[in-house]
Write a structure and sequence with these properties.
This protein is α+β, with helices and mostly antiparallel strands and about 425 residues long. It contains 16 helices and 16 strands. The structure holds histidyl-adenosine monophosphate.
């Protein structure tokens, strides 16, 4: 048996790196007053079909949808935003102080064609700031995303930023774009896509399509006064926060709910799947899910892709340091002592381990070596007869006999706990 297509297992020692990357990405959120939320990994299908948008690939082609035994249509979440918004509405968080700042981390599922950096099961760190459309909040959100990557030591990435307008200007722009696309030589399939969401054509990767789009109208050139002022303020705050960006007027995200500020974090060392994170404002999402008319902005970072970026830049993050102390017993009586000693050390907060099973002297010393411990105690039968164990400092190679009754304290002191 193997893991299902497009999925993988994360095992030690890589898993230590995974945890370190995940926790580094969430630390800036915790420092900025965002509260942790858990929602189910499956939701009623309508949460995504209404929230993410029927015209998107994510909803129309990539969802893991199934009927449960009660005949309900449920879907494994393809992203976390719609579920968080559902919870925000259900628990009437909008009645409290705004903005409500939330974060979450967990599995997402999309039935995509697997390739490097694109999986059917992956992990996202997600954050959302709900209930206020203050441009300073947009800047906070974007800057927190940048901070997470910086804290990992990443440098070879860029922030792509644009504004997708809102209901005051996007409908007119859409008409302009549709009129422009009408005159082009496009195949039927592309025309169908254009009819559902013309913006998506701007993102078409094929050269024969791109060649015709040179002077296509762009949303940023057709923003209403208020949306333009909002975007200008966001950029002003970002400059104040020391965040640099690249204007990306053709950025089209894979989800339909975006309005105004929209962005992606792109890493240069990853090939085709280069987006390590992305997000934006989604002022209509709450209403689409039957909630009040509240705005929101947030982003999600792909933890698995960020791991690949960390590797691509050769960063040494989350390499497991192993244990601090290791006890090697030789003989049955020593074994009892070793198990007890390791238990005491762990209770005192020292990372400690011993050998299990009959490993013999050679095997046990190998295990001690591999454990990464800075201090090792070897307890042989002859030592035990004299009431001592041998304490070895692995960095200097020094070895001293220590009375059994003092081993715990001496080990604790030696590792600095
Ligand atoms: P998204 O751009 O669809 O946005 O996904 C965010 C990130 O998740 C991507 O940049 C990528 O790193 C990672 N990701 C997406 N699909 C896969 C996959 N198949 N395999 C591996 N990694 C993947 C969202 O999901 C929005 N909910 C973000 C958001 C939050 N917008 C507002 N708030």
């Amino acid at each position: 048996m193997t893991a299902p297509k497009g999925t993988f297992d994360t095992l030690p020692p890589d898993s230590a790196r995974f945890l370190a990357v995940r926790d580094t990405l969430t630390a800036p959120l915790r420092r900025a007053g965002y509260g942790y939320v858990e929602t189910p990994v499956f939701e009623d299908t309508a949460v995504f079909s209404r929230g993410v948008g029927e015209s998107t690939d994510v909803v129309s082609k990539e969802m893991y949808t199934f009927s449960d035994r009660g005949g309900r249509s449920l879907t494994l979440r393809p992203e976390l935003t719609a579920g968080l918004m559902r919870a925000f509405i259900e628990h009437r968080l909008h009645d409290g102080a705004l903005p409500v700042k939330l974060w979450s981390v967990g599995s997402a599922f999309r039935y995509e064609r697997p390739q490097a950096g694109r999986y059917r099961h992956f992990t996202q760190v997600d954050m959302e700031a709900l209930g206020t459309d203050d441009p300073a909040l947009d800047a906070e959100v974007v800057a927190l995303g940048v901070q997470g990557f910086r804290d990992l030591g990443l440098t070879d990435f860029e922030l792509q930023l644009t504004s997708l307008g809102d209901s005051t200007c996007r409908p007119q722009y859409r008409e302009l774009l549709v009129a422009y696309l009408d005159k082009l030589d496009l195949d039927e399939e592309t025309r169908r896509r254009a009819a559902i969401n013309p913006l998506r054509v701007l993102d078409d990767k094929r050269s024969e399509v791109q060649a015709q789009l040179g002077d296509a109208p762009l949303m940023v050139d057709h923003l209403s006064d208020s949306t333009k002022a909002h975007y200008d303020a966001v950029r002003q705050h970002l400059t104040d926060l020391g965040v640099t960006w690249v204007e990306a007027p053709r950025l089209v995200r894979g989800l339909d709910y975006y309005t105004k500020t929209t962005f992606e974090f792109v890493h240069n060392g990853l090939g085709a799947q280069s987006a390590i994170g992305g997000g934006g404002r989604y002022d209509g999402l709450s209403a689409a899910l039957g909630g009040p008319d509240v705005s929101g902005i947030g982003y999600a970072v792909g933890v698995d892709r960020t791991m690949l970026a960390v590797q691509a830049e050769g960063l040494d993050i989350g390499v497991s340091a192993g244990v601090q102390a290791f006890v090697v017993p030789l003989g049955a009586e020593a074994k009892r002592l070793a198990v007890k000693l390791v238990g005491q050390l762990r209770q005192a907060g020292v990372a400690a381990d011993t050998v299990y099973g009959d490993r013999g002297l050679k095997g046990s010393m190998k295990a001690a070596d591999r454990s990464g411990a800075s201090h090792i105690v070897v307890i042989g039968d002859r030592d035990l007869a004299q009431g001592v164990g041998q304490l070895k400092d692995m960095s200097t190679g020094d070895q001293v006999a220590v009375p059994v009754g003092e081993l715990f304290e001496r080990l604790r002191e030696s590792v600095g706990a």
